[in-house]
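Input chain follows. Return structure tokens only.
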Amino acid sequence: MGMMIQKKKQAENIRNYIDKILKNQEIDCDEEWWNGEGVEEELTKLAGTEKNHVCDPGMFSMEGDERLVFAAFRERPEELLEELTKLACQLAEQSELAGIQFIFFVRDMKGRVCLEEALDRDFLTKLRANVRRVSGNRRLSVHCTYILQKEFAKQDVKLKNLMRHEMIQMPPIRGRINQEGREETTGSGSPGEHLNALVFTMDLYQLAELYNLIGDKLFKNNVRFGISEMLGVDYSIRETLDKEPELFWFKNNGIVVLVENPDFRPKNAEELVLDHIGRDKEPGFSVVNGAQTITTSARYFFEMEYRWQNSSEGSEERLRYQKKLEAAKKAQVLVRIIHISGEKEQSSDMAKALSVALNRQKPIKMEDIAFTLRFVEKLTGYLNRPYADNKESFGLVRRGEGGEAGQYMDLVEFARARKACLGEPGEARSQGAKTLLKIQPGEGLPDFFQQKDIFVDEWLEADEAEEERVFRRHYGALWFAHQAAREYDRCRKAVAKEQRDDFRTVINNGKWYFTAVLVRLLNGFAPDFVENGRGLPDFTRFTVPFGTVRENIPGAMGLFADIVLLYIEGKEEYKNLDSNLFKKSDLYKNLMEEIRHFCCLGAQGRTKLECRIQELADLFLGEGDRACYAGDGHGMGEPPAAGQLTNKVVLKGSMRPLESIVQAMKETVRYVLENYPLSGEQIKEHGSGWLTDEENVEGAAGCMRRPERIQARGKNYWVGTLSNTRVKCRQMARLCQAAGVPKGKGEVAWYGDSPDEPVFYW
């Protein structure tokens, strides 16, 4: 079991590396590209293979002019390059490409240097010539990215040979010579309250060794990860190390290391322990500025070492490499260690903020250009106004800014949430930043966004007095949708755990479908209005705070998966249930029409599909627009609020104390089945989706949420108990009616704190 967990974690690390590259290079791809068929297996191979491995590019849902090829290098580079050459020519034959990018995963700097020595300039020149000839595109590019992927042995990570008396401390120690770090504060609320720092000079070679030990996780908080440099800085760093290493300190801006390890303390005069790492303990520190300095210098050091070791013993060439390596190891660099203390959430947000602030020189991306457009300028101005009565307001930030816990979203998240609100969940998932934020030149006028259903003209044209009305009309549910999608991600693993394959497929791929369904449901199926010839949803009356429905999300996710599976059952056009089904919105539109039709009829669910839809709607009754829901209450008065306390049950005049609503449900079902036996067919008809007997449990229990076993008349039954109180009352009414329990006499009743107001009464 431990080995399986370890492999899964390794594959997840590979996924995170690739995801960062895709986002930072603005490569269009399916938002959840890793859920494609066979992708997880490929990621596992990239992480754990002991031999060279090249992934089939066709398995990854990544579009655009450049094709990405992922490969793991372990041994014999010639064999790997031969395979890559064939693959590159095949790709050039198949489609029009602007370029091919090889992304290599290596285990240490020695492996990287070995591969780079084989993949030298001559090889790349020949490869480019071949693929250009095959494709007919003389400008087709071929380039490489390397990821140093490491697994950690248990050890302390130290910076050694330091001069403590030469360190500068911030805040200054002000004469308190024996003070170790900063004094504890009483919580002033100052932004810098949980920050302190050390500034010192150290050997650059130590940082190269640190990179070889930690790998690219050393840059986990660096917002520039995977972005190629265009300014010739790599060449400048290598030139300085090669020709004048003693001047390196003067020519380099230095390194900034963020330490989030709460136990970090400078305890030794000559060394700093950054953190303790191990197989299950990742480093609590990262380099947020100076990643290029470290990676480029590490390449130089390990290249010299590789060439020295592979030169003939006693040769002039070997002696030359040895001297260069010894001279370069004398290079020193300025280092700032910034320690962030405080709560983990605050620490993470501060780490992001510092990383962004220290990397303002990152290359211009589509999102940076988008932030200069008048639409975004106007929107950020509106969102930044203080609205004391609006707890659902949010801020718009560039990617990587803001904090995980704060009320922020970036422009890409804004666009995806808007697509879900528009009823286009497939596009919310499958369209990348370049498509969502595509800009149209204004031809003498200001540039504008091409997707006007996301960035609507009415908002751009609204005067200040109209802004709030127009914003609510178009974007009133957008922050809710964003929060729902984030909560879905948080609950995904728990909901899908130990479920059958088709259920997991829906849960793993259906985030934006679920979000779109939930928004439409809570918006009361409000009619569209027409703008520029197209119907757009109206969210003027959408007033549901996400916090009021958060606890219902896991249960709703399970019901949603059941609804999808029941709807597509037996339909030829949906016979292939995989990630591709959720990259378009066709299924959503058909599914939503089924849900809307049933909800607006106000009818009692009969089929399994209708019962599931009714349970999903009932989970959120009382939120949003109720106008489309109707029902007779099944013999009850006003339906109880979700989660209302039930601590007593009456069964044929006998009152019993209870610990929970679940126990009330189990006791009631047991009582009814003991005294009013139902046939298997009656149970299938009236207990669809929440009650089954032992003969049908294999086919039905997997569909039920949180099944509990009971016994009645010597037979086992399973009761689904995850629904809220209102739904449980409906289910009990349906069961009592089918079994012929006399109605209106109180033979079955549930009570909360008040003996005069039953929660359920039959």
